[in-house]
Amino acid sequence: xxxxxxxxxxxxxxxxxxxxxxxxxxxxxxxxxxxxxxxxxxxxxxxxxxxxxxxxxxxxxxxxxxxxxxxxxxxxxxxxxxxxxxxxxxxxxxxxxxxxxxxxxxxxxxxxxxxxxxxxxxxxxxxxxxxxxxxxxxxxxxxxxxxxxxxxxxxxxxxxxxxxxxxxxxxxxxxxxxxxxxxxxxxxxxxxxxxxxxxxxxxxxxxxxxxxxxxxxxxxxxxxxxxxxxxxxxxxxxxxxxxxxxxxxxxxxxxxxxxxxxxxxxxxxxxxxxxxxxxxxxxxxxxxxxxxxxxxxxxxxxxxxxxxxxxxxxxxxxxxxxxxxxxxxxxxxxxxxxxxxxxxxxxxxxxxxxxxxxxxxxxxxxxxxxxxxxxxxxxxxxxxxxxxxxxxxxxxxxxxxxxxxxxxxxxxxxxxxxxxxxxxxxxxxxxxxxxxxxxxxxxxxxxxxxxxxxxxxxxxxxxxxxxxxxxxxxxxxxxxxxxxxxxxxxxxxxxxxxxxxxxxxxxxxxxxxxxxxxxxx
Length: 521
Known about the structure:
Among the domains are: about 1-160 and about 390-455, FAD/NAD(P)-binding domain (3-Layer(bba) Sandwich); about 170-290, no CATH class. By secondary structure, the chain is an alpha+beta fold. It contains 13 helices and 25 strands.
């Protein structure tokens, strides 16, 4: 039986684990990262979610800067996209350059406990059974697998949706897409404006037509993530394509996960044919790659020292021990509805100051099990502000030498649906690596560590947690301020919020949509 004994063990090589491994190793800790696949990056690379949304800071920014310098980044103000295959190489190189040891094909399945501490993690690989000891463990499995088996309390799903998980997407790579033609068609659709508010893009209209004409058997999703692969020509581009969706999911069931994967294999073939027929620029598209990692958006969420509340997102909550900034919107991919696609609001008995509070009733399909209380407000995040994520969200209850980073940190259902995005996963991973260093050097547990010290260490390392978002986010915030006071808000399909302008036209979001959509974006 193989044995390893290190300072820090990182379990999982997705965005959070990658950042945790780099951060811990750079502090001089003997760090080992284990991953059950054969490459790093998780959904960012193996799942074809190639555009990291949110605030790109710290190690996330460093990685993208390295990709940009090599011509491997499709650079846009919002969600710049990486080459998924080349990003695997770059992440591996960056991790090893930090001094972090790396083992692939390692399946972490159990723990050996010593009271409230993990003594070792039990893994299986081609070498057989393996026990890995460490002073501190960082769970970046995405599903809180190690936290769960070590006794950390956790939650799954939400009472409002009867325990169901978010909709799941299986990404594919497509070739021979004329992105120039597609962007021109999208721009013309926005300028024409007659599609609002029933649809928020030309793709939503396509789905309705395809279902009506029998080219899709049912509504799958009224939008999706489409990112051009850097270096491929505009007129015959490769893209990463995240549109297929499965609903009514239980993401801790192997049978249901298998159902979702097979279902989306079929959906992607249907979508390939439908896009060829209905979407400008996709006339010659073909699937050229299948994601090797299913796009699971949520499963377990640990219960930590602080649970990020659904209302924290809308209220733009700030924390003294903040380790990440979140300027995005609620992104609850609807658990049951392929028509709505996603939900961008929560409900509150009282309006939340500073948020967008609507009183118009919701479509019943948005709330299939539990209608909102009569008179409650539909509350949307205000793009003129941003929420922060505190260090305490990555500190689990009951286990003393464990940190948890990535999409399974301590948060309520809709808050997690917001902060699960790639840039935030990297931020919480980086914070976990830095916290591990502070804990081991001071011989204290993560629970005893003052999170303000983690924040300070991140700022000292160049992460601008002490400054408001700049660039694209500063522009968006500034352009949104006038809308908050001057315009009528309307709810668009897909639960986007639009504003009705004085001439009667509706924009998809706050501010001047033409300025928000650069030619490349």
